[in-house]
Description:
Elements: H1 3-35, H2 39-44, H3 54-65, H4 72-103, H5 107-119, H6 128-142, H7 150-173, H8 178-186, H9 191-202, H10 204-220, H11 223-229, H12 238-241, H13 253-287
Amino acid sequence: MNTEPKTSTKVISFIIATCIALYILFPFYLVVVNACKAPMMITESPVSMNGVSFSQLASNLNDVIHNVHFQFWYAFGSSVIITVVSLVLLALFGGMAAWVICRNKTVWSTLIYFTFIASMIIPFQAVMLALISTFRDAGNFIGIPMLRSIPGTIFAYCGFGGAMTVFILNGFIKGIPYELEEAASIDGCPPEEIFFRVILPLLKPVIVTVSILNGMWIWNDYLLPSLLLGSNSAVKTLPVAIQSFVGSFVTQWNLILAAALLTITPMVIIFLFAQKQIIAGMVDGAIK
Length: 288
């Protein structure tokens, strides 16, 4: 009598989970399937497997990589530089900020912490127009171009990704015994040495988690780099460069989907290998 409700609950949960998984994976299915088709087959039957060919996929990928307007390797290099440098700066300065906020129990530290938290709920669309004008004025003031440049894009990602980084790292630092820092201080370590020799090594697991989450966001982001770099800029990330296949009268869907497949593949591989680390780090950062 008691096993029937449990079995039915498991079946219902399995059906719901399967439907959610299919709903989430369906766009990825469309990208993979249509990247293996010729342009005419995509418009005729975008959902079916008709016309799928690995030779057509190889042809589409070859056209994408050697396309003069797309400039795959240049866009790939720009995406790698922006993503890697942004992640290093976010991990370093986010860890410093989270440590100072966590260990200094003052009104100002609490206010700063809740300011970080509040900034997470502000939609990007609400500040994007002000962001462009601010970056233009800042570039003119300091003499370093903030628009249509890699440094400006990295600076923007550090600003928008800092809130979540501080939030997760702050929760993890709360679980680190304060006695470790006291012992290092007694031994004569200054605050900066305490952070780099004691705190930072202990933050490595959660820093990996935060870096993966921020990395997937920065690598796949389109709106922010499209605003700061522009479609006609010499500097393009991969999501922005895909726009070169969209014309006023002709849209090359086979090349767009092949380019999208090339763009998302690195992040999919990283996520598959690091999903346990992501979940573990999120739990540690939220509970501790």
